[in-house]
């Protein structure tokens, strides 16, 4: 897929939990080598959309298409094999394995097993020093987030889905994260960021989609959309983003 053309597409996604409509016909394109952000208030359906793309929630209707392939019915692990990697909002590293071992697990679950990719991921996330031999259990949140991102990258993904990647990070760590994510996009990786930190979104994303009540209500270049959001916030009960 050429840069800028959609790698992953969602079409008319509908999700219902016990009759409650969490996604009400969502379309989304993730263009190759671009950073796409999804923002919106608590309960808007952001995580549900994320799970539909990752394969952990099955829509009642609609499609998820990777390149030319319909992956709507594929489970999460099969999508990872095809190059759709993700991180977890709740950290999900193996506590008894070392940093390097955790990252190796990612390589085995990924699109191709490439030992070079493990080393590159460790280096990119600043985990190639002494820390690589430490058990993940003892590490601070900021380091664990880097381990998790390295693990996702170790499988050489085409698409990287990030759920609240800045959660629990300090300002310096967020700046470093933004630098890494920009480098990945420049290298051709396609990124989706679901994030409540609007400063990070403004700094990072090419395109932003605003969700409310299971629908995408605004989309466009990040500057335009986040400007519009201020106006929107003033005139509604929209009391911030989760
Ligand atoms: P967001 O990530 O934007 O906060 P979610 O996708 O988590 O929104 O949730 C969208 C709506 O679906 C919310 O009203 C939430 O309470 C509901 N919901 C999410 N997951 C479940 C579930 N497993 N069972 C029932 N309702 C759910
Ligand atoms: Mg959520």
Describe this structure in words.
- The protein is globular, with a radius of gyration of 17 Å.
- α3 packs across α4 (115-124), α3 (99-109) packs parallel to α5 (141-153) and α4 (115-124) runs antiparallel to α5 (141-153).
- It has helices at residues 46-54, 76-81, 99-109, 115-124, 141-153, 171-186, 198-204, 222-234, and strands at 6-17, 20-31, 35-39, 61-66, 69-70, 84-86, 159-163, 190-194, 207-212, 215-221.
- The protein is α/β, with parallel strands linked by helices and 242 residues long.
- α6 (171-186) links the parallel β7 and β8.
- It folds into 2 domains: 1-83 and 158-237, 3-Layer(aba) Sandwich (Rossmann fold), CATH 3.40.50.300; 91-157, no CATH class.
- It contains 8 helices and 10 strands.
- The strands form 2 sheets. Strands 6-7-8-3-9-10 form a 6-stranded mixed beta sheet, sandwiched between helices. The chain has a 4-stranded antiparallel beta sheet with strand order 2-1-4-5, covered by helices on one side.
- The longest helix has 16 residues, at 171-186.
- Residues 17, 20, 22, 40, 42-48, 242 line the site of adenosine-5'-diphosphate.
- Residues 8-238 form the ABC transporter domain.
- It is found in: Cell membrane.
- It comes from Streptomyces tauricus.
- This is ATP-binding cassette domain-containing protein.
């Amino acid at each position: 897929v050429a840069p800028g053309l959609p790698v992953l597409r969602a079409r008319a996604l509908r999700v219902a939990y016990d009759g409650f409509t969490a996604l009400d016909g969502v379309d989304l394109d993730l263009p190759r080598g671009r950073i796409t952000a999804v923002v919106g208030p608590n309960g808007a359906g952001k995580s549900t959309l994320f799970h539909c793309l990752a394969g952990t929630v099955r829509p009642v209707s609609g499609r998820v298409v990777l390149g030319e392939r319909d992956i709507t019915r594929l489970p999460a692990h099969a999508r990872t094999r095809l190059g759709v990697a993700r991180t977890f909002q709740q950290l999900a590293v193996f506590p008894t394995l070392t940093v390097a071992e955790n990252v190796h697990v990612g390589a085995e679950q990924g699109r191709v097993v490439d030992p070079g990719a493990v080393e590159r991921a460790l280096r990119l996330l600043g985990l190639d020093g002494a820390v690589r031999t430490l058990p993940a259990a003892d590490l601070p949140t900021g380091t664990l987030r880097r381990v998790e991102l390295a693990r996702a990258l170790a499988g050489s993904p085409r698409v990287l889905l990030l759920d609240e990647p800045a959660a629990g990070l300090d300002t310096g760590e967020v700046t470093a994260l933004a630098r890494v994510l920009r480098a990945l996009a420049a290298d051709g990786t396609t990124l989706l960021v679901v994030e409540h930190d609007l400063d990070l979104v403004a700094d990072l994303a090419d395109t932003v989609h605003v969700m409310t009540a299971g629908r995408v209500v605004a989309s466009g270049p990040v500057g335009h959309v986040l400007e519009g959001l201020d106006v929107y916030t003033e005139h509604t009960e929209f009391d911030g983003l989760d």
